[in-house]
Amino acid sequence: MNRKIIPLIISVVIIAILLANCNIPRISLAPATSTSTTAPTGTIPVDATPTDTAPPPFATAELGLAENPIILALPPTANTQAQIDAAKVIASLFTERTGYAVVTIIPETYTALVDALEKGNAHIAVLDPLVYELAYQRGLVQASHAVVREGEAAYGAQFLASRRGGFTSYFDEGTGENLDEAPVALTQFADKKPCWTDETSPSGYIIPLGYLNENQIVTKPAAFVEGHPTVVRSLYASGICDFGATYIDARKFPSLEDEFPDLVEQVIVVWQIPPIIPYEVLAFSTKMPLGMRELFASFIPAIMQTEAGKAAFQAAYEIEELAPVNDGYYAEFHRYMSASHLDFLALIK
Questions:
Q1: Cys-Cys crosslink for 243: which of 42, 111, 161, 176, Cβ 3.0 to 4.6 Å?
Q2: DSSP 239
Q3: Which residues have CB under 8 Å from 307's CB, separation 6+?
Q4: CA pair distance 283, 118, nearest whole angstrom
Q5: Residue 328 per-residue DSSP state
Q6: pLDDT digits (tens, 9 = 90+) for 211-262
Q7: The whole model's pTM is what?
Q8: Considering the domain boundaries, does residue 22 fall inside one?
């Protein structure tokens, strides 16, 4: 045997022995999140639903592949097969146009929905104002489209008081415009008792409270009377509270007009909050890459223009129309929601 070959053979044998005794990690092609039918904590699987299982080392499945799909969340209130089927149609329409795999889940609660957004177990959702604000403050979502109701993408609120209480109105009923700024109009509520609707109402409590706090107006402890018409009725009756807040214009609720013909004259609008409150917001998870978010958003108008897409959004989310927006569109909403100083996580269910 050639003497020059012997050292080469010895070197090869030594390397083989060393490699046999080493742990060389294998690159796994397993998904970053499993597509097991076991749902994440707090969610109900609709179809192939990701779990909270940690990905194996060196996982290479990218978001949007079948092994790690985009997740469309239904609202926790979804409880019919028609809603589930409609969500699947929306998912398939997104897949058809974007090429990305999309599946659906139903969170058991809104708290579970926020948790899913935080863990990457939800990527597309239609959020009510309270949940949107909480997710936005945590940096979990980016607004994409506003839900439009009766031609409007947002709505306002109003401060009301009894005419007998001696309050001054800074609102012109004829023109529908405020006559002065909030600090001037709302100062008269200092040390007065408010009637609020309930703790989760943006127009009947949270946003009006934000306006009062923003202007450093301290009131007496409030009465939560459960419902906008009840706020109006309480002010008409007098003695329960000094002022209150409702959507525009709760005074004209049919049963109230029938019960109190002179109600509009006796319960006055002191000041109106402009339309800054969203109905609902279609939002994307910030865990989706920006380009992917923009791609999905760009196809929403086309999907809504199809008969199948429009019907699916109506059945799944009760949405008839969507308008493109961004988080900046809700800047005033964010400002006064934050000024309320409330714990939104404690308020959602």
A1: 161
A2: S
A3: none
A4: 13
A5: G
A6: 999 999 999 999 999 999 999 999 999 889 999 999 999 999 888 878 888 8
A7: 0.82
A8: no
